[in-house]
Design goal:
Elements: H1 4-13, H2 17-26, E1 31-32, H3 33-40, H4 44-56, E2 60-65, E3 68-73, H5 75-89, H6 101-111, H7 125-136, E4 144-146, H8 147-155, H9 161-170, E5 174-177, E6 180-183
Antiparallel strand pairs: 1-3, 2-3, 4-6, 5-6
InterPro entries: ArsR-like_HTH, DUF2087, HTH_ArsR_DNA-bd_dom, HTH_MetalResp_TranReg, WH-like_DNA-bd_sf, WH_DNA-bd_sf
Organism: Melghiribacillus thermohalophilus
Keywords: DNA-binding, Transcription, Transcription regulation
Length: about 190
């Protein structure tokens, strides 16, 4: 399963018509920057700028041949990212685990202290998701958080803020972009309280 942040980067990289045209040209084979500039009627620095965006998103790769850099379409990555988008619309959106309220409460009671702190991060996936969903409730939908704010929020209930933050991203509770975090729609969460 591809992280949502990676899919967002992919879509942003393709949000420019010149980048889409570059991808279309590269599907026929590798080209160097001058050739792309000529075919796209752009200046070489502009091509370099667009190529960096595509490279950062994993859509193209660079290969040097002597003094010339050739841009190649990263077809495997492109196919994986495109497939990741299709997964979002299908099973993943409805792939929430089903847990009875009594079971949720029992797991929360076992892993939390009386004052609301997390004793330990559960090793079992189902229990971990229940705990992650329980603690994510303190964040607001539609609000963007700096990484520092997320860390401080997590430290209120557990010292290992990096692991909790990473687990939230991996399980699609939140997404990260440029060190800013925002809650995903609840339909993407593996469990909703």
């Amino acid at each position: 399963m591809i992280q949502l942040s990676r899919l967002v980067s992919f879509l942003k990289a393709l949000s420019d018509p010149n980048r889409i045209r570059m991808v279309a040209l590269l599907k026929d084979g590798p080209l160097h920057g001058q050739a792309l500039a000529s075919k796209l009627h752009l200046k070489p620095p502009t091509v370099t700028h667009h190529a960096k965006k595509l490279k950062d998103a994993g859509i193209i790769v660079e290969r040097r041949n002597k003094n010339t850099i050739y841009f190649h379409l990263n077809e495997k990555s492109l196919a994986l990212l495109a497939h990741g988008i299709l997964e979002l619309g299908g099973d993943q959106m409805s792939n929430q685990i089903q847990v009875k309220d009594e079971e949720k409460l029992a797991i929360i009671k076992n892993f939390t202290t009386v004052d609301g702190k997390l004793k330990q991060i559960p090793a079992q996936q189902k229990k971990k998701i229940i705990i992650l969903a329980y603690y994510i409730r303190g964040l607001e939908h539609g609000k963007k958080y700096q990484e520092k704010e997320i860390n401080e929020y997590i430290q209120q209930f557990h010292e290992d803020f990096a692991t909790i933050r990473r687990e939230w991203v991996m399980h699609h509770f939140i997404y990260r972009q440029n060190n800013m975090y925002e809650l995903n729609p609840k339909e993407m969460w593996p469990l909703v309280f």
